[in-house]
Design a protein that fits this description.
The complex is a heterodimer of chains A (210) and B (604). With 210 residues, chain A is an all-alpha fold. Chain A is 57% helix and 0% strand. The chains are: A mainly alpha (210), B alpha+beta (604).
């Protein structure tokens, strides 16, 4: 029912409908007034009337191959596979991070700086500590670094916690918004029901109402 | 009047006969309706069923919820996991085409810090420096594609607030005038709710059964009752039983995306299809109305509009003009309808056009309830809004008036185990990662709640819209600028809300996630941002006091009818859509009566 969320999308691919629409809009505007700047500025944005049934990413992705590799490794340390579900990279989180930091909007542009600088910093730190890139580190080496980053009072904490928190939140959000993530977090909705049954007895007992 | 024909076909699946601008359009209509939302849709429904030939003009594009709604898509099916962007401020899946900014159609507001006039921009309603934000839709169905579906009747006191406490203004009509139309609207639209007998929150004889409360709502109910506050089922324009050929809600996927199965109220699924079935309705989309035109006697004879696809200006003739463009857009059209007879704009002979602009107040506070952690898994989607809420009571109003809060609000909430989006529930989990993150996400999922309120603003002299002296939109039409100021009564109310929300969260066994704000000016939403802008063409008992009579007819020109929120004299804590529908129906019945009696003659 759900298309794979990690489906590769060519950076400038537009559906025929969308392309036609934009041409029509552009020509309609050209007829009326001097507002050519709209069309130029808009072309790589979502636009105010996108096809809601299609996932089209009109802007080019900017992360390099090595950045993508590091995103994948780090995201899987943050959200690993376990009994509740697969690891982050298995549900397209790497593609999401690339899509997110490449987006032309103010918030994403700000976060792009923090995330790319943070990724570079993490690799440098891994090199200094273990003599190899973060991606080349063994699991215990990776968690040693992350534990230092999240521990209050360390130099790594000072330098890297803002990056860690942002990156972790984006990875977790991207993960849990997939159907696999729903299963992992315990979301069982988004299915049609004839009646809404309300909470089951075990839920009422859990909150002390039965 | 029979509300619905016995014979029903699924009109939304049949392509509508949309007109081109040059071919099949009639030369003259009985009525031209500006706008296709709650007011325009209702006017089309009532007039076409009575046999009138009607042209509906919509400034946006054609829109069909049956084929365009992203039902059941996960946020992973959207760019940026559906996050808000300047172009889709309520997220990718929000049905609205439009928003705080409509390209090429600016409006002017005041920067509260610098006090300068600036162009209205995309903003956050809690952080913007703008004194006013204006939400507009450019699509068939208008803002009925966006709204919260909250459907509360205004009560007797809401029509006569000045008589009650000397503040604000009385309407020239009362609850008893509108009640029969509430009855009709509720039977047509379908509202769930329950009879509760709460004073000034009138019940309906036609409520559909309300959905059962969710677990977190039961905790809030228990908490509220400890505080002596009533909690009753919400009242929503969402079907819990099939009605008039429409399906009932399937308790999944958000109303804000639109509804392909027509289970909630959108003008495009409830009003326009039966109006089309009469064969009397033509719809022209991408038609931006500039002004109402008059004949030599000063009677309206049609409208000028811009065909947005060609940029050409056109005229359509009609015997009656119904304005349902949304309150402020309607005022803008009237301001721009200047003539030697009405040099300051049509309807503005007594200087009341644009005045008494109001919006609902709003505020919110978030919390977390530990008892909800590690909840046994179950589906809590329900309808996409609260199932219960706290109505305001007259008793509470009397008590709070003594403390500087003369007007009230209803309290509602969101929360529960809704479809996860980009915000993972890790706010209290600390800097966890790995397997610990996954168990903490599972633990906290569904344990957060957000309490919010919609409250009443008293109309004041400092809040009004007018034409900007210079700025024009891309079609060359002068644009609006907004003066807006909350008064002490609203700021006190917003500060009181914060404490009331904190008390509720704690009484329900929860903890606030941030301390309640004591400064009302920081706790209140920006003007306009609750999207309940009302007034600006208010009805009045005497021409000197308003823009229209009690039926929405301009005092200046009785064959022009304001059918939207422009006519509201007060803006109580009852979301306006239901009342707009009732008043539009009533106004159109009066028009039909006037035509029958010859009081509305054909224009010369």
């Amino acid at each position: 029912m759900h298309p794979p969320s990690s489906q590769p999308v060519s950076p400038l691919a537009l559906s025929r409908r969308e392309a036609l629409r934009r041409i029509l809009v552009a020509s309609a505007l050209a007829v009326s007034l001097d507002i050519t700047s709209f069309a130029v500025e808009d072309i790589r944005r979502i636009g105010d009337d996108p096809d809601l049934l299609k996932k089209e990413i009109p802007w080019p992705r900017i992360l390099t191959e090595s950045e993508r590799k590091l995103v994948t490794v780090l995201a899987d340390v943050i959200v690993p596979a376990d009994e509740f579900g697969p690891a982050a990279s298995a549900v397209g989180v790497t593609d999401f991070i690339d899509e997110w930091v490449s987006a032309p909007y103010e918030q994403q542009q700000k976060e792009q700086k923090i995330i790319r600088q943070g990724l570079a910093w993490l690799d440098t730190t891994a090199q200094q500590r273990f003599g190899r890139s973060f991606a080349a580190c063994a699991d215990p080496e990776r968690t040693t670094l992350l534990d230092d980053i999240v521990r209050d009072g360390t130099d790594l904490h000072k330098a890297g916690i803002a990056f860690f928190r942002l990156f972790r939140d984006r990875v977790a959000g991207a993960y849990y918004s997939t159907p696999e993530g729903w299963a992992a977090i315990g979301y069982t909705g988004n299915v049609p029901m004839a009646e809404f049954p309300g909470p089951p007895p075990e839920a009422l007992r859990h909150v002390g109402l039965a | 009047m029979s509300a619905w024909p016995d014979r029903r076909r699924n009109s939304s699946l049949i392509p509508m006969a949309f007109l081109s601008t040059s071919k099949t359009r009639a030369q003259r209509y009985d009525a031209v309706i500006v706008g296709s939302g709650a007011a325009g849709g209702m006017a089309a429904y009532v007039l076409t069923k009575a046999g009138a030939k009607v042209l509906m003009l919509e400034a946006g594009r054609h829109y069909d919820p049956a084929t365009e709604t992203p039902m059941f898509q996960s946020f992973a099916d959207a760019p940026l996991r559906g996050a808000s962007t300047p172009e889709k401020p309520n997220g990718f899946f929000d049905a609205t085409i439009g928003g705080w900014v409509v390209k090429g159609e600016p409006y002017v507001v005041k920067n509260r810090t610098s006090n300068e006039w600036i162009e209205g921009a995309v903003g956050n309603r809690m952080q913007t420096a703008q004194n006013f934000m204006w939400w507009r839709a450019r699509m068939l169905g208008g803002r009925t594609n966006h709204w919260g579906r909250v459907s509360l009747r205004m009560g007797p006191l809401d029509f006569k607030p000045r008589s009650f406490d000397g503040l604000g203004f009385d309407w020239p009509i009362g609850y008893e005038d509108v009640a029969p139309y509430y009855d009709q609207v509720e039977q047509l639209v379908g509202i769930f709710g329950s009879k509760e007998g709460v004073e000034n929150s009138p019940d309906s004889d036609f409520f559909l059964p309300p959905p059962k409360p969710r677990a977190y709502e039961l905790l809030l109910e228990r908490g509220a009752k400890k505080l002596g506050l009533p909690v009753i089922p919400a009242r929503m324009a969402i079907l819990t039983k099939p009605l008039n050929g429409r399906s009932q809600c399937l308790y999944a996927t958000s109303c804000g995306r639109g509804c392909a199965i027509r289970a909630n109220f959108q003008s495009t699924t409830v009003l326009i299809p039966p109006a089309m079935d009469t064969g009397n309705l033509d719809i022209l989309s991408n038609a931006m109305v500039r002004e109402v035109t008059l004949d030599a006697q000063g009677r309206a004879n049609g409208v000028h509009f811009i065909d947005k696809q060609t940029g050409e200006e056109q005229h359509i003739s009609a015997r009656v003009v119904i304005l349902g463009a949304s309150a402020c857009e309607t005022a803008r059209i009237l301001f721009n309808s200047r003539s030697t007879l009405f040099p300051n704009g049509l309807g503005n002979s007594t200087g009341n056009l644009g005045r008494w602009l109001t919006d609902s107040t709003g505020g919110n506070l978030s919390g977390q309830i530990p008892a909800l952690e590690n909840m046994p898994l179950h589906n809590e989607d329900g309808v996409s809004t609260m199932h219960l809420y706290i109505p305001w009571t007259v008793e509470r109003q009397k008590a709070m008036a003594k403390k500087g809060v003369p007007r009230g609000f209803y309290t509602a909430w969101s929360g529960g185990r809704g479809m996860p989006g980009l915000g993972a529930p890790l706010g209290l989990a600390g800097d966890v990662y790995g397997k610990k993150l996954k168990s903490e996400a599972r633990r906290y999922f569904g344990s957060f709640i957000d309490i919010f309120a919609r409250g009443e603003m008293i109309p004041n002299e400092k809040s009004f819209c007018e034409l900007d002296p210079e700025k024009k939109d891309r079609w060359g039409i002068p644009v609006l600028r907004f003066n807006f100021q909350w008064a002490e009564s609203e700021l006190n109310q917003a500060a009181y809300m914060q404490q009331a929300f904190a008390d509720l969260i704690e009484s329900a066994g929860g903890k606030v996630t941030k301390q309640p704000e004591k400064d009302g000016s920081k706790a209140i939403t920006a003007g306009g941002s609750v999207n309940h802008e009302m007034g600006v063409a208010r009805m009045s008992a005497r021409a000197a006091d308003g823009v229209t009579n009690g039926f929405g007819q301009l005092w200046d020109c009785p064959n022009v009818v304001v059918a939207d929120g422009g006519v509201f004299v007060s803006n109580p804590f009852k979301n306006p859509t239901l009342t707009i529908l009732a008043l539009a129906w009533r106004a159109c019945d009066h028009v039909l009566d006037g035509v029958k009696k010859g009081e509305i003659p054909a224009p010369a």
